[in-house]
Specification:
10 helices; two-stranded antiparallel sheet; two-stranded antiparallel ribbon; mainly alpha
Length: 227
């Protein structure tokens, strides 16, 4: 339903991004990490070095940043949309439709509603973000373990989320929709049967999806996720 490049090596928070023979960044956590409950100010101060994009900076103003990120990744891995944890992923513009010969289609321009969102994500240097991800590993672990999935590592779930993004496909031709209450659903049952995460990714449009997938692929490669 509806609703809801080259990568430069970067010096971040005083720590050089070390790249091993595999192309992945170093895995050591940052020194003197705060506790999870006290980590938001620390993260805001340092994560601004990843990008000065205004949407990114706005999202850093949220609370419970690590917990939000962990649950969002778990949701994507399970096929759910992460928009509840990451509300900035929802565009403010209204979904538009076109009526032709008595049939209703999604406006091909709808994907542009996500231009700024995808621009914000891809504004982060993928290798520096991978280093940051590894650097805050103890905070991620502290947010992950209370979820009770003791037989799994967070990296494994993150790898599944990466695959969800990389496997997503956005239709390039006319997409017929039908009204389903107050929302729009795909008329094609195969499209409508896709997971909420896959449908969210479809809505961003083919160009934005390719840009996002390129970034996720670079981040995953640098962080070693999914290897």
């Amino acid at each position: 339903m509806y609703g809801g490049g080259g990568i430069e090596e970067t010096v971040i928070v005083g720590d050089t991004t070390d790249v091993g023979a595999t192309g992945t960044v170093a895995t050591e956590p940052f020194p003197e990490l705060p506790s999870l409950d006290e980590s938001d100010p620390w993260l805001r101060d340092r994560a601004t070095e990843l990008s000065r994009n205004s949407r990114w900076l706005d999202w850093l103003g949220a609370d419970g940043l690590v917990r939000r990120m962990v649950i969002a990744v778990v949701n994507v891995a399970g096929g759910e949309s992460p928009s509840e944890q990451l509300p900035f992923l929802e565009p403010s513009d209204t979904f538009q439709v076109l009526v032709q010969d008595g049939r209703t289609y999604a406006d091909p321009a709808n994907g542009r509603r996500y231009d700024g969102i995808v621009r914000a994500i891809t504004s982060l240097d993928a290798r520096a973000t991978a280093r940051f991800y590894r650097g805050i590993g103890p905070l991620i672990e502290a947010a992950w373990r209370p979820l009770g999935l003791v037989d799994r590592e967070f990296d494994d779930v993150a790898g599944e989320a990466v695959r969800v993004v990389l496997d997503a496909e956005a239709p390039t031709g006319p997409v017929e929709v039908v009204q389903d209450g107050v929302v729009w659903a795909y008329a094609n049952p195969d499209l409508e049967a896709r997971s909420p995460a896959a449908k969210h990714l479809m809505r961003i449009g083919p160009d934005n999806l390719l840009r996002l997938q390129d970034w996720v692929r670079a981040f995953a490669g640098a962080s070693g996720i999914g290897r």
